[in-house]
Design a protein that fits this description.
single chain; alpha+beta; Fumarylacetoacetate hydrolase, domain 2; 6-stranded mixed β-sheet
């Protein structure tokens, strides 16, 4: 007999290519991790210390649809590589960090840019602009055993057939092992944690009816329609 006093919410998951589901514990996101994107957002592209924010695990959505959210008139796309951890730990060494990776997936960090900008101006947290319902459309995970290290390769996003974001994974300022090591100095990471690794330049607005396709070399494409 369950000891829960209300019905327990379902565990958020990401589908795995070939079958199965990856349960998600936490979602960490690194900010301004491509130099050109840092510039377009009005910041110095030099290698400043990394910073992170979080989305909610149930923000991840593999339905292929992104409902335009309320309370915003300026919602932007941000194309990212998602890194899923199969092992956790604290104070993980950079040289051992990739041993903790279970797999990779394409993901969109959809952002209520107007609400985020207002939060920035007022010195407030970003969650209202970042961690809203279905704000992280995600594609299927591929195991790291199949992909190998995702340290280079094209990442690109098309909007209604036109390429709007394009870069290479090797342009990340902070590489995947460094992100894992840095996070593990502040948090005890665990299996089921995922990291959104930053977006290249070209972020911009979406509108209802738009069709987005995120392509990352070595992974399956993620196709999303804005509804």
């Amino acid at each position: 007999m369950s000891e829960h006093v209300i019905t327990a919410p379902p565990v958020p998951t990401i589908p795995v290519a070939g079958g199965g589901q990856f349960p998600v514990r936490r979602v960490y996101c690194i900010g301004r991790n491509y130099a050109a994107h840092a510039v377009e957002m009005g910041h110095d592209p030099d290698r400043e210390p990394p910073f992170f924010f979080q989305k909610n695990p149930d923000n991840l959505d593999a339905s292929g649809e992104f409902p335009y959210p309320p309370q915003s008139a300026d919602v932007h796309h941000e194309a990212e590589l998602l890194v899923a951890l199969g092992r956790g730990g604290a104070d993980i060494a950079v040289a051992e960090a990739l041993d903790h990776v279970w797999g990779y997936a394409p993901c969109l960090d959809m952002t209520r840019r107007d609400l985020q900008a207002e939060a920035k101006r007022m010195g407030r947290p970003w969650e209202i602009g970042k961690a809203f319902e279905r704000s992280a459309p995600v594609g299927p995970l591929l195991p790291a055993a199949q992909t190998g290290p995702m340290d280079k390769g094209r990442i690109a996003l098309t909007l209604n057939g036109a390429t709007v974001q394009e870069g290479d994974l090797d342009q990340m300022i902070w590489k995947i092992p460094e992100m894992i090591a840095c996070l593990s100095a502040y948090f005890e990471l665990a299996p089921g944690d995922v990291i959104l690794s930053g977006t290249p330049a070209g972020v911009g607005p979406v509108a209802r009816g738009d069709a987005l396709i995120l392509s990352i070399a070595g992974l399956r494409d993620l196709s999303v329609t804005v509804t």
